[in-house]
Amino acid sequence: MNRPVDYSLYLVTDRGLAKERSILEIVKKAVSGGVTCVQLREKACSTREFIDQARALKAWLDQKGVPLIINDRVDVALAVGASGIHLGQSDMHIRDARCLLPEGSLIGISAESQEDALAAERDGGDYIGISPVFATPTKTDTAPPLGLEGVRRMRKAIRIPLVGIGGIGLSNGAGVMTAGADGIAVVSAIVAADDPKKAARALKKAIEKNGT
């Protein structure tokens, strides 16, 4: 990625919340509503299905100039030429991923503590997903919520972009941005919405009006 990345409204997919709609259908509507970055997260499907879905998403997102980030799977990111990868603390180390990925690929790192965030910045991460900002039902194996004060502390310590995730929706997204995040990552607030385009548009309007 040679151009700056807009992380402001970052969608993380979850087929379990899709209500029998395809992820591609939801992503199309969400991007039409203002989503600026998409992370494809798949935990249960086969590798072949993951790649097929990622390739279809990338073909459409490329037309819109929206980056596709693959969760965890460096092999899938390589297979489809994704914009980058998002790694957790127990996934491949950032230095190893950097050796495998093409020059200019984005690498995002999940961090639940300032120590993890500082290490990710030091090791060359492009952005950090700080989590959970608030309690969330979509992930149960997380640390205690950071809250807005935790976001502020992270912002003072970290220079690279911060994306808040965890329990973020229309009622609190702007506050996360005001606390210093460069973007908000949402899952259920868009994926589970009856109208993902409308939900994304409302979130985008809220963070542009109050959070930036």
Structure description:
The protein is of the alpha/beta class and 212 residues long. Helix content is 42%, strand content 16%. It has one domain (9-211): Alpha-Beta Barrel (TIM Barrel), CATH 3.20.20.70. It has helices at residues 23-33, 47-64, 74-80, 94-100, 114-122, 147-157, 173-178, 188-191, 196-211; strands at 9-12, 37-40, 68-71, 84-87, 106-111, 127-130, 162-165, 183-186. Helix 3 links the parallel strand 3 (68-71) and strand 4. Helix 1 packs parallel to helix 2 (47-64) and helix 2 packs across helix 3 (74-80). It starts with 8 loop residues before the first strand and ends with a helix.
Primary descriptors:
alpha/beta, eight-stranded parallel barrel, about 210 residues, TIM Barrel
Short structural summary:
This protein has 212 residues and is an alpha/beta fold. Helix content is 42%, strand content 16%. Mg(2+) binds at residues 72, 91.
Global morphology: globular
Whole-number count of domains: 1
The CATH homologous superfamily corresponds to Aldolase class I
The profile of the biggest β sheet is: 8 strands, parallel, barrel
Oligomer state of the chains in this structure: single chain
Helix-strand topology string: EHEHEHEHEHEHEHEHH
Rg over CA atoms, rounded to whole Å, is 16 Å
Assigned CATH architecture: Alpha-Beta Barrel
CATH topology tier name: TIM Barrel
Helix content, binned percent: 40-55%
> CATH first level: which class?
Alpha Beta
- Poorly predicted runs: none
Distance between the termini: 24 Å
Family: Belongs to the thiamine-phosphate synthase family.
GO cellular component, one term: cytoplasm
Binding site for 2-[(2R,5Z)-2-carboxy-4-methylthiazol-5(2H)-ylidene]ethyl phosphate: 136-138, 167, 187-188
Protein name: Thiamine-phosphate synthase
